[in-house]
Design a protein that fits this description.
The chain is of the alpha/beta class. It has helices at residues 10-16, 27-34, 41-45, 100-109, 128-142, 144-147, 161-176, 198-202, 212-223, 260-272, 289-292, 297-314; strands at 50-58, 64-72, 79-85, 112-116, 149-159, 183-187, 248-254, 277-282. The chain is globular and about 55 Å long.
Length: 320
Amino acid sequence: MSLTRPDTDPELSALLAEIQPMPPLSLELLAKLRRLPSTPVDTLLDGRTAEHREVAVPGPDGTRIPLSIFSPADRSTAAPCVYWVHGGGMIMGDRFSQIDIPLEWLDRFGAVVISVDYRLAPESTGTTLVDDCYAGLLWVAAHADELGIDPARIVVAGTSAGGGLAAGVTLMARDLGTPAIAAQMLIYPMLDHRNITTSSRQYSGGQGVWTREMNEFGWRAVLGDLTDDQVSGYVSPAVAEDLSGLPTTYIDAGTAEVFRDEDVEYASRIWAAGGQAELHIWAGGFHGFDALFPRTRVSAAARRTRGDWLARVLSPASDG
């Protein structure tokens, strides 16, 4: 018997009803999803005064990690940087997925947006994904002058699986002592492989943008046969024992999604460790609501609120 659960926002619900439901995830379906065209980034850049270039940087095992770099065309001072980690359940997507979200911050703040193309599960497993993301971030910090970036204003941000990987990268940077991260923005992040929360059970069965069953498929692809006590906190940040010493953090999620409770718990543990976190849980938001339907009222509010938080984080100390 399914649990009762919060209603989806009516405006979102009407739009969601027009989308063809996704069948249960399988390796065959995953292969089909990966063949779908990538986000047409050139269309997103139309009308923006932005420069786009591609680089490939060395990963920890010698594999080249692609990075897409989007820079304001007219800059006179070192810019803030948003290091973007895409979503896709750790099994799909690429560096252009959900890129419209951070490109808004290029427009508003003159930020350099750098998106990492980490390797995906099940072909790559364990810490490989987060190691790729960390290697890309190290390269960005080491080339800050060349990139026109202020190294004191690097924000690590990601959505869904990318939010979980962003959290893992931030933990890794804290533990290894480099690079400096000014803030982390975790947008409905995928943080906990255990699927033990109420919201995980509420959004089990039936169709949805991301259900408990889809989440289990994604985590199995990453973790394989690892037992719970073998799972690194860099991969599943909810199991990290120590959340102290993290940079200021923004976390949001919807009330109507699997990740709601693990995201609330992560913010609560940051506060318990003496850290600073801002938490927003959007009434009626399902997983990925603002990426799918950015013009709805609740989506616009979520995007605006993230931008307002970044405005405070990115303001040079001399401004305040």
